[in-house]
Design brief:
Layout (H helix, E strand, L loop, with lengths): L1 H8 L3 H22 L30 E3 L9 E9 L3 E8 L5 E10 L2 E9 L7 E8 L18 E2 L2 E2 L1 E5 L5 E3 L8 E9 L2 E2 L3 E5 L3 E8 L7 E2 L4 E2 L8 E7 L4 E6 L11 E7 L1
Parallel strand pairs: 11-14, 13-19
Antiparallel strand pairs: 1-2, 2-5, 3-4, 3-6, 6-9, 7-8, 10-11, 11-12, 14-17, 15-16, 18-19
Length: 274
């Protein structure tokens, strides 16, 4: 009788067991809910059937790029030093328009994803002193360049077109007058930020030399101290010239005297031989 009274005053052991059972059940349910489902599938967007007409972007850690140097295009071929693309692409060579931007297409080359070195792209003839290399996405028919009337639009990285411009090295012109003693060697040199189209020119001692200089990008001049020769400083689109006699043998540095352009690599070599 005493035990029965005690049970009436305290908590029934059946109640305790029931509460514990409920708590265990709650814990088990929470564990099941939080476990990842092996068969969970992330929905994949379906193709609407329409081609993407916007320039494509890439978010890869290694971004697409183009590297190439000033070069002669007398053989109507552009050589690209290094190039990387993350998708099927076109490497397109453009002429420059009047404003210095990419203009007429001169040639193209189809590319698979990957890193390339020493690529050669055949082009049609041009007399421009600055050309452009631009990456386009190959989004349309494989092996067919579809631009501007198509989907093979310029490739974008961080909202910037993947492109590089470069100077073309013009072949030396030599003008000979009737009086051979007045022979003049003429070199057409262009300047961009921050390089000359010809990194090296060669003449003979005693040659009369004329530098025909044009700036195609920026404010520049052409100077060689040892012969006291310097053109005027000209802005984009401007041309000037200087004439001197190469009366000493050796290798001499010519450079742009504007600001820090010389220190930034806007230099070349004048080689005077016997």
């Amino acid at each position: 009788m005493l035990n029965i009274l005690k049970n009436k005053k305290g908590i029934s052991p059946y109640v305790v067991v029931a509460v514990i059972a409920v708590l265990v059940l709650v814990v088990v349910v929470l564990i099941i809910i939080q476990q990842p489902k092996d068969d969970a599938v992330t929905p994949i967007p379906t193709n609407s059937g329409q081609n993407n007409i916007l320039p494509l972007t890439t978010t890869n850690e290694q971004q697409p790029f183009i590297q190439l140097s000033a070069q002669s295009i007398a053989d109507e071929v552009v050589d690209v030093d290094n190039l990387y693309t993350t998708q099927p692409s076109w490497l397109v060579i453009y002429d420059s328009d009047e404003g210095g931007a990419p203009g007429e297409v001169l040639g193209n080359l189809a590319l698979t994803p990957g890193l390339f070195q020493n690529l050669s792209v055949p082009i049609s003839g041009t007399t421009s002193t600055v050309l452009w290399a631009v990456l386009h996405a190959d989004e349309g028919e494989v092996g067919k360049f579809e631009y501007p009337n198509g989907t093979d639009l310029p490739l974008l990285v961080n909202n910037q077109i993947v492109a590089a411009n470069f100077s073309t090295i013009q072949e030396e012109k030599e003008l000979i007058s009737e009086d051979q003693n007045n022979a003049v060697k003429i070199f057409n040199i262009t300047g961009v930020n921050f390089s000359f189209s010809q990194p090296e020119i060669r003449v003979k001692k005693g040659d009369k030399v004329r530098i025909e200089f044009t700036s195609t990008d920026g404010f520049h001049d052409w100077v060689v101290d040892e012969f006291a020769a310097a053109t005027e400083k000209v802005n984009t689109g401007g041309s000037t010239s200087v004439e001197f006699v190469a009366d000493k043998v050796g290798t001499f540095e010519y450079y742009c005297s504007v600001g820090q352009h010389r220190a930034m690599g806007m230099v070349g070599k004048l080689i005077v031989e016997e």
